[in-house]
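Researcher: Let's run the pair from yesterday's discussion. Sequence first, then tokens, for each.
Model: Starting with the first of the pair.
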Amino acid sequence: MLPLLALAITAVTVPTGPTLTDAIAARDAALFRLFFQECDPARMTRFLTPDFEMYHDRGGKVAGSARDFVDDYAKQCEARKLPGAWRSRRELVPGSMEVGPVPGFGAIEEGDHVFYERQGDGPERLAGKAHFVQLWQLGSDGLWRLARVFSYKHEAAKQPS
């Protein structure tokens, strides 16, 4: 049997109101900028809990751990270096983000985002949109790390005729 201390979860004091929303908005922006534009697998690891999981309505269970996710991300980064590779960018839909505290743990973020893509140095075009729910954990070191992602309601962008 495990000692009682091993079962104790270190609770953190989670901010509320605008302080919480601002913290999550900043971390969200940094995460997606890193993912789509900067390609740094070592830094990505610091954005995720070790037991990170991601679920996607088109891809299924995308990741069952931070290691799985970062390994796949590193491959995507390498592929994006090719001259004709597809590159994407994400934008949060203004006014769609909602953040609520999870006492002693972190926060839940929900919102909508749109994605743009371009091939090589070609023109960028709106590719689609989706809804997301993300569970953030506030570490005892004060860093917000993503623990769970649910990405769904993906729709292709309506292209002008």
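Model: Moving on to the second of the pair.
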Amino acid sequence: MSECTKRLFGTDGVRGKANEGLMDSEMALNLGRAIASIFKNESHRHRVVIGKDTRLSGYMLETALSSGICSMGADVMLVGPLPTPGIAFIARTMRADAGVVISASHNRFDDNGIKFFDSEGFKLSDDIELKMEAFMKSPKDVSSRSFGSDIGKAIRIDDAQGRYIQFLKECFPRSLSLEGVKLVVDCANGAAYKVAPTVFEELGACVIELGTEPNGININENCGSLHPERMCEMVRATGAAAGIALDGDADRVIMCDENGRIVDGDVIMALSALDLKRRGKLAKDTLVATIMSNLALDHAMRANGINVVRTRVGDRYVISAMRECGYNLGGEQSGHLIFLNHNTTGDGIVGALKVISAMLREQQPLSELARIFEPYPQAKVDVGVMRKSDFSSIPEISRMIEGYRLELGESGRLVLRYSGTENVARVMVEGPNPEKIKRMADELASLISQTLAN
């Protein structure tokens, strides 16, 4: 079955405006029933972990999800605010049948989303999501529900944060120490606001906290990985060794070096790949990236004997390629970093720990480690759309794309795609001439706006 046949699920679960349209309590109730039904196993009473970020609407959706799951005879384990990778970890290590995350990641506070993990901590396949959608077409069918003593119950797992913190600390080599290392840690007023500072402090670092005062509506607001400017300023002002900026659910990270210069996901992947290869731990000498990663990444890796495999956009597709072929490192330019020897999904804190351990191991500042490649210029424009029509079916757009690709030749790329989580078309043009690629990106974005924004 194809991912494009899905109607409800995007590339990262279900997402939308909280309490509007699809993303309301009734939808959450039915999603709860669907996940419980899909994973129901007659051999035991099954359990589902539910965690969330700090959005105000998380309370509403958590209650509805829990109700739906319990109505199907499954028990719920509530862990409260916890990073998405932490929920995957808890679901896996507590031998739950599934994990649920209530989060809209890097989106505004008034959005929310629901995504799922299986018992091994991996995101659900397209086929399973399609089965859930099929189940939800008959939400009032009571034949599969439980009654009497078979109805499920919900309990709170009070030590979930502590379990995840301990796991994260074990991802950092015991031979290294953060004693005397000053770090700026921006948690985006999101799910990692307690976990991330605690991890680095307990490893010995001097932590300067940003974005650790969530109030339900300030998640990602001028902070975190989408707005790293304040982190960079604080690093320069305090003389910190590095800055770490997480997003709302902490499954991605953007860093800055001691000079306040941004270190994005491509650079983090590159320096991590080199670090693993030097120690003989990079599986099959291969890094997995998406079509959005900079072409300079491929050239730099090739020069160091590392192969780069490309996938479609979405960390789930990166992970799928890693699992299928036995690779252990992958990620996205946006900051999703997957160290498959440690966790089953993108983990921003693990990514930061790996960068810092490489700094200590090589006894070099991050500015030196990050000089792996000079990125090719990229021009990116996002365009809001009312519908997601096939670009090839719109003659004027198709002609413009074909013309630009011929003009770029082998020296550049044009990538046009729809967001899997928003009604947005994303334009990316890459090439040696900044003025030319900006013109191309702007003109294509303008044409898309004229044809699809109304």
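Researcher: Give me one sentence on the second I can quote.
Model: The chain is about 35% helix and 20% strand.
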